[in-house]
Amino acid sequence: VVLDAGARDAAHTVEIVRRLGCRVIAVDPVPLHVERARERVAEAELDGLIDVVQAGIESLPLADSSIDAVWCRDVLNHVPPGSGLRELARVLSPGGSVLVYQTFAEQACEPEEARRLFAGAASLAESMSAPFFETAAAEAGFDVVSREQLHGEWRERMLEDGTWDVSADLLALSRLHRRERELVERYGHARVEAMRSGRLWGVYQLLGKTCPTIYVLRLRL
Fold first, then answer.
1. Residue pLDDT, tens place only, 169-215
2. Within a 10 A sphere around the Cβ of 214, how many other Cβ atoms?
């Protein structure tokens, strides 16, 4: 049994079932995400293998030691990592593993630009530090089995494949900066900052200001 913690529209959930043939519990706290996840699961005709549940990673409606493995992509940066990791440790069976994908700030990212980037993306600043994350994981009872830093590789591939238009993001950022006061008055500060962070996310990965990282954690026996 695999837990997809922060499943969004269940795109990864469906792929996990198709590739591994396991049962998956997909949880997400956002009602719209849950609705879309259930629609995707029904379209894939995988209702018998996937359960979609509305819940946050900090409070999972699951029994202790009921999960064998966890898939967790771009989630722990939105909650205090200690509370999220402790809850994953509670529901995991002894020796169970967690695959975490998360983006961290690099030294090239100045403190103020990091603060603004992560605030706009609704990420906790302290969660964007790899050493802080690893300390929180150890305190929750996990050992780091492996860590792979992707740097800009994923974005490079997207550019080579033509699946990401970095020019469009740079144009949008320039226009947003030039018209920031007008856009804030029309749409509000939070929406403008969210748009700015979303457009900067991939650019900062290419520039080495942030680093997407894949961890495999194992719960200590």
1. 999 999 999 999 999 999 999 999 999 999 999 999 999 999 999 99
2. 14
pTM for this predicted structure: 0.91
DSSP string, 152-187: THHHHHHHHHT---HHHHHHHHHHHHHTHHHHHHHH
Predicted confidence (pLDDT) per residue in 56-70, tens digit: 999 999 999 999 999
Round to whole Å and give the CA distance between 59 and 91: 10
